[in-house]
Write a structure and sequence with these properties.
The chain has about 325 residues and is an alpha+beta fold. It is built from five helices and 14 strands.
């Protein structure tokens, strides 16, 4: 079954493109460009619009642009002003992204639009031309739909790493050696998706950064899958780059996920060190609380202890 799935996904890749995935966004309309247009989302096999009612604000607009790969938003407006209203389904209304650090619109709060809702409230956004990956840090990942260079939810998995340092660096590929579906799922979750629809490979002449990826279960950071400090410069599988396809299952929205800023890589510091430090800090905190309680009651500051001592004294008298 796994072989059949891999073959089907590979055939789709080599046919020249990927199918749309649940949760994908696009900018549409008569005057739309790659950075501005009416916001549409792909759900349940169909494109539809997002209502720009009173809940849609700067946080929601920023999340849309971040999901599309842009650093931030410039403005948003009613789609009818410049791009025209949409047709068909209206998928989301009452979108609320306040105080959320996410790069996926379906991570925000939202509701299904009422049955009498119309496209007169369709929203459009204007995104800054700077891309998220124009300001990367070690451990950032992105999905590039090569050779077109369009960044979507499906394409070549790329990782940004420095050449043995934490300063500077470049984008490179991940080798297909030992790569499995849970590795793809961890990468997708770092980008805000709930999981991977599949993975495959294609030839690439890019810098090879990572080989032999191990994700024994679904992490929320792809960083956890390559726990070593030396980058790779040779891909044993004939320079085959991993390609992944990410999707968003609304029913799995409660599962853990990360962001690029949550999943940074530091040379010279193994990943398990951070986990160990977290456990030690938690242990010391619990010990501190217990010690304070014991000291409090020993010094008769604790009201319950003081009451018991007073009662014991009266009995003796």
């Amino acid at each position: 079954m796994a072989t059949v799935f891999f073959a089907v996904f590979a055939a789709l890749l080599w046919s020249g493109g990927f199918a749309q995935n649940n949760g994908d966004l696009r900018l549409a309309g008569s005057e739309a460009t790659s950075t501005q247009g009416r916001v549409e989302i792909f759900l349940n096999g169909e494109w539809g619009t997002i209502s720009g009612d009173n809940s849609f604000d700067v946080y929601a607009a920023n999340t849309v642009c971040r999901q599309l790969g842009y650093y931030t938003f410039l403005s948003f407006e009613n789609a009818s002003v410049t791009f025209g209203t949409g047709t068909g389904r209206i998928w989301l209304s009452s979108v609320d992204c306040l105080n959320l650090e996410t790069d996926h619109i379906l991570r925000c709060g939202y509701s299904n639009p009422p049955s009498n809702d119309t496209h007169q409230l369709d929203v459009a956004v204007y995104c800054e031309t700077d891309r998220v990956w124009d300001y990367p840090s070690n451990g950032y990942i992105r999905i590039a739909d090569q050779p077109t260079g369009v960044y979507t939810s499906a394409g070549v998995l790329e990782v940004y790493l420095g050449d043995g340092t934490n300063v500077g660096g470049s984008w490179g590929i991940v080798c297909t050696d030992y790569f499995e579906i849970w590795d793809a799922t961890s990468a997708c979750r770092q980008l805000g998706y709930t999981g991977a629809a599949g993975y495959s490979s294609q030839t690439s002449d890019e810098q090879v950064w990572i080989d032999t990826v191990y994700c024994y279960y679904n992490h929320s950071c792809f960083r956890a899958c390559y726990d070593f400090t030396d980058h790779m410069t040779y891909c044993g599988n004939y320079d085959q780059a991993v390609t992944i396809s990410c999707t968003f299952n609304v029913g799995d929205a409660g599962l853990p996920y990360g962001t690029n800023d949550d999943c940074l890589f530091f040379y010279g510091i193994p990943y398990w060190v951070f986990a160990l430090v977290g456990v030690i800090v938690l242990f010391l905190f619990v010990c501190g609380v217990v010690c304070c309680i014991v000291a409090c009651c020993t010094l008769s500051i604790c009201p319950l202890a003081a009451s018991r001592r007073q009662h014991h004294y009266q009995v003796i008298q």
